[in-house]
Specification:
Distance between the termini: 44 Å
Strand content: under 5%
Helix content: over 70%
Strand order of the largest sheet: 1-2
Largest sheet: 2 strands, antiparallel
Order of helices and strands: HHHHHHEEHHHH
Radius of gyration: 19 Å
Number of domains: 1
């Protein structure tokens, strides 16, 4: 299992490094990550017994990142307009049902998945397309992923106090603290990209590190409800795409808006 996990990690890190440097590779990689993440999300819902329009949801969810990559804006607030249209389509599709039972659940879970996976992850594209975006993207990955690694390694070796056993039995308080420390280290290592002073970077590391752990716990909560261990099996030894990107889902939009305000 360790060898499989190490191999998957090396391959994933290699793809991410190349994607950060080369925009065409980044475009292909982010679309792939989002489509696979949507597939895993809707597959989990199917296992729970929720009847959703799986491929319709994946298709709709792909439009948001694709429109950002192509710099397409039908209106000034295109994404919000699209969400309204998407909701309208989802409601219209429910009229085809013979029974109205479960309509609210189906619409809500489909809309939530598109926003949670597709829209939130699309902020990575917006970050990459900012002036100096490659450095900002490297920073967010350093902060969140060092936090993930620190929490996993320290928690699995020294963790004794359960953090939220009803959500994720293996996560510990000790691991969470170690994760925050590693996120701060990641923020400090990001100084060549962010150009903030060290106190600013340390506070940013704590803030984004906490959001990353919240994203991890949130996905664990979804998996717990769907009664699955991993979101998928695309990464040997590591699980699914959502399992690896969950810590970025809350961090990416917050970091983007933070950069927009500060810069």
């Amino acid at each position: 299992m360790f060898i499989k996990r190490l191999f998957s990690a090396v391959v994933l890190i290699g793809i991410i490094i190349i994607a950060i440097i080369l925009k065409p590779v980044f475009s292909v990689a982010i679309m792939f990550f989002i489509i696979v993440g949507l597939y895993e999300y809707f597959t989990m819902l199917e296992k729970k017994g929720i009847k959703i329009y799986k491929y319709f949801g994946i298709g709709l969810g792909s439009i948001i990142p694709l429109s950002i990559l192509l710099r397409f804006e039908l209106t000034k607030r295109w994404e919000f307009f699209f969400i309204v249209i998407m909701l309208l389509f989802l409601i219209l599709m429910q009229f085809r049902r013979r029974k109205s039972t479960g309509v609210i659940v189906d619409i809500s879970t489909t809309l939530f998945g598109i926003m949670y996976v597709s829209w939130f992850m699309s902020f990575l594209i917006k970050i990459r397309f900012l002036p100096g975006g490659a450095g900002y993207l490297a920073s967010i990955l350093l902060i969140t992923k060092l936090g993930d690694i620190g929490a996993y390694l320290f928690g699995s070796r020294f963790g004794k106090t359960p953090l939220m056993p009803h959500v994720s039995p293996k996560k510990t308080v000790e691991g969470a603290i170690a994760g925050l420390v590693c996120s701060v280290i990641g923020a400090l290592l990001s100084r060549p990209f962010l150009h903030f002073n060290y106190i600013h970077l340390a506070l940013l590391g704590i803030w984004l590190g906490a959001l990353g752990q919240l994203g991890d716990l949130s996905e664990s909560l979804l998996k717990r409800d769907c009664e699955v261990k991993d979101s998928g099996k695309i990464l040997p030894g590591m699980g699914g795409m959502l399992d690896e990107l969950d810590s970025l889902l809350f961090v990416a939009p917050v970091f983007y808006f933070y950069l927009s305000a500060v810069l």
